[in-house]
Amino acid sequence: MSMESVAARGSMSAAEVRKMIRQGRLRVPTTGFAEGFMQANLVILPERHASDFRLFCERNPKSCPLLGVGEPGVPGLPELGSIDIRTDVARYRVYRSGTHVETVENLSDIWRDDLVTFALGCSFSFESAILRAGIDIRHISANRNVPMYATNLPTSPAGPFAGSTVVSMRAFRPADAIQAIILSERYPLAHGAPVHIGDPAEIGIKEINRPDYGDPPVIEPGDILGFWACGVTPQLALQQAKLDLAITHEPGFMLVTDLPADTQSVR
Amino acid sequence: MSMESVAARGSMSAAEVRKMIRQGRLRVPTTGFAEGFMQANLVILPERHASDFRLFCERNPKSCPLLGVGEPGVPGLPELGSIDIRTDVARYRVYRSGTHVETVENLSDIWRDDLVTFALGCSFSFESAILRAGIDIRHISANRNVPMYATNLPTSPAGPFAGSTVVSMRAFRPADAIQAIILSERYPLAHGAPVHIGDPAEIGIKEINRPDYGDPPVIEPGDILGFWACGVTPQLALQQAKLDLAITHEPGFMLVTDLPADTQSVR
């Protein structure tokens, strides 16, 4: 895949990307692949925790926008495409009792009849909309991962799932920040509008240059900082719940779905 | 009118408000009257400047959202209601050669066959939407006029009309500022989304506590400052153009139209 141009990556269909992953021929982050298709965060957990986790998502829709939920033991997500969730993501994180014990390239040896799959929206859709509007996203231009921070904003708990909201940060010139707010609000399945703008300290972020996840930020003088609810929030809740088994994607290695990237609702 | 309750003012129709004004029985600012109807800034000027002024409005739609334009010498604006523009605004400012020479209660003695009327959107519609969302607007709670400032943001000139953009400022808690941006963007005829947020100095405002127009601001610690293009912008352009005659409303004494307050387009 290293020979593929950026344009070729973008013009692939979601099904083509999934096929390459399934065949073991694509082992890089999915950013920039299959432009126009919605990518998803992945959470897989045992059925007995599924209704609590679903409730957690519904109570925290900005962090955990629900795109689709599978049936127990069934590795398909028919509403999101012709998907075998055991093979169609390039890298999976396996958690046991809340600890990340291994990263695997498929779930063939791990899959169980009681596992339920959740696909949650990610920020790519609104970032694409911002880029299409001609607005620079500093971490993308700098070829960095988005900076992410733990905050003092609580989630609404459900069963064993709780914890604080994790946010991603994007810095903009003030006029661009206004547009970024307006554009992101149109993508509720991609975390929607920011949860905070301005002073990081107000949401409990002490050192903006030392993110808890991702890369250090790129901030220019006069920038407005925007903080969006982030897909790491459910991952943190999942770890804290210490389930016997839980599976997520490795950050950046998303599930590429057949949903159009500008889908605003799946209900 | 002093005996009328706030609720009674709000529940009046636009036509009822205009009738009371026409009969000389309502001589207070129109804020809070005829809730649900769009109020307008007024500009009246000689026909030979009308096409330049129209172009100025079209080139600066955030400052000068055009609701309606009259025919030369005709005091009606049929698209906006059964209006006689000579009598249906409570107070008019009369400018000669760019100087405010008098404030009058009707235009009977001043009206000419070459005068053209422009009705421009004002901020009441988006402020109503913000209040309906349960968000405090500090200057309204403090019973003050909105603070307004000259900026270094240029307008796009047309003929004799030019000058810098005047903005109104509203301060919010960060989460409320995000909502205020999203809500105001839905009202392009009420100045739309802000033109700036954050540091006032970036748009040339040196002393935030000394507005150029209106009352001093109410700002709480941690507030995000939002700056919206303001209807004083065309008034300033009008003064600088030094026309032989120009007429506007006295600030706060608006034209109350029959348009629903949530009208998003008049084209």
TrEMBL record, chains A, B:
InterPro entries with a match to the protein in the record: D-Glu_cyclase, Putative_hydro-lyase, UPF0317
Chain coiled-coil ranges: none
EC number: 4.2.1.-
Alphabetical keyword list: Lyase, Plasmid
Source organism superkingdom: Bacteria
Gene Ontology MF term list: lyase activity
Keyword Coiled coil: no
Name of a matching Pfam family: D-Glu_cyclase
Enzyme's top EC category: lyase
Family statement: Belongs to the D-glutamate cyclase family.
Protein name in the entry: Putative hydro-lyase NGR_b19850
